[in-house]
Amino acid sequence: MDNRWWKLTLAVLVLLASTYAEALFSHHMKDFIKAVKQIEDEDPGSDPAAVLKMVRRAAGLNDAFIRYFLPNAEASVSELPANLSEYFRKAVHHRVLEDAKEEGVALTPDGTTVALGPVLLGIEAGFLSKSKGRARGLYQLTLARDLGLSLRHNSSGANRFGPDGCWDSLTSPQVFTLSDKPTLLTTAQVNGGMDGIILGMEVSTNSGGLPKLSSLLNEYYGHQLDSRGMDRAPRLISRRRRENFKALLLPPLLAKQAVKSVELQQRLAGHPKMEVKAKKQLTAVMKKGLKDFVHMYMDCPPFIPRCTWGAEPYRGTPTNLSLPLSHLFIHHTHTPGEPCLTFEQCSADMRSMQRFHQEDRGWDDIGYSFVAGADGYLYEGRGWHWQGAHTYGQNARGYGVSFIGDYQTRLPSQHSMGLVRDQLVSCAVGGGRLVSSYILQGHRDVVSTTCPGDAFYEEIKGWEHFGEVRKR
């Protein structure tokens, strides 16, 4: 057999391995964890750092910046089977293509999308930590490098971060498409960076035995809520990403780490040491840009976009709101009557309500601006900019936020109420969408209805900015 036939045979084998890997595993976090567990099962004695090193080698996460903090992935590491190596290369290697397809990301069971690279780098830094609670390079490897690049590249203040995007399938996701023009720091990268910091810090402080990587990921991303929802959920789960990140990292520290990352990249590239004046200017850019980051990813609550819960298109042309608005109206859905505790159920409830509003009531879309699930997320209805159909005679003046469930005799979870009362309001006021002197009412304050239920209405009467207006 001549060389041409050998090359052709090799190409076919590589193609078959790639096709097999794609058929076996999707870009869902559950499948990624299965692939990690396969490595662990084939070598039961391997420690988590060794497994991470193998995955990092397959994914090509081994540039000079990474090697400054972590061991060379090419040195003394076992080879993965061809199918797994190809899967990890596609699953972890991050890039955004010209057609706005984002690779190296995974759909998690809670409905959010994360970049896998920073998650794995953060965990490896944590496992290699030599002092409790301090992991060398943790912030630079997970978030600070990409944050510094994004802020330095776009110092004008417009669209520095994001966007989020949509999957081609929620059961077997393969393609993730960004919903707008990409920046150098997408929402998936931010989510992955936050998770990498949280999990890296967790394993660096763990005084017990080292957990298996698959177990750590499964407990964090796969935790199932019981009937008490987020009010009794454990601390270390992905649904608490933003609150855990906020508790771990102060913005000035993140700005400092972003500056350090830029300095290190320049030094590794052979450039001279940054002058004092240039460093001061860079620090000012980072501090200024970080205000937008804090607003988007720390002050604002986590949202599940329309495309992720499976929204049908708006029928007709939406009416744009004139911002900022003056009112916030609180509703309960009544039907569905039970709080939703999973991404799947909350998404099904959203689709059911949209179908009822469009088909039975003849509206253009689901009526609410946002909807609070009991799973730790707010679901995007008509959103910040489209006028809703939630509060008769008041839709142009305020946002309508509904809580999934019937709250005539009971309250929503404390966590879901906090998402709206504290985070959504702070996000709206801070983003110029709601005036700081806004008025909050229940649906029944302006329309003859029992909404948002007797028990819940008594609760919101104690919320800040509550006030009554004349009923219609």
Structure description:
It contains 16 helices and twelve strands. Mean pLDDT is 92; it is low at 9-22. The radius of gyration is 24 Å and the shape is globular. The longest helix is centred in the middle third of the chain and has 24 residues, at 276-299. The strands form four sheets. The protein has a six-stranded mixed beta sheet, sandwiched between helices. With 472 residues, the protein is α/β, with parallel strands linked by helices. Strand 9 (370-372) and strand 10 form a beta hairpin. The protein is 46% helix and 10% strand.
Topology at a glance:
Layout: H1 3-24, H2 29-42, H3 48-59, H4 64-69, H5 82-92, E1 95-96, E2 102-103, E3 105-107, E4 113-115, H6 116-127, H7 138-153, E5 165-167, E6 176-178, H8 187-205, H9 213-221, H10 241-248, H11 251-268, H12 276-299, E7 303-304, H13 306-309, E8 325-332, H14 343-360, E9 370-372, E10 378-380, E11 398-403, H15 414-430, E12 434-442, H16 454-460
Parallel strand pairs: 7-10, 8-11, 8-12, 9-11
Antiparallel strand pairs: 1-2, 3-4, 5-6, 9-10
In short:
The chain contains 16 helices and 12 strands.
Keywords:
single chain; 472 residues; alpha/beta; 6-stranded mixed beta sheet; two-stranded antiparallel sheet; 16 helices; 12 strands; 46% helix; 10% strand
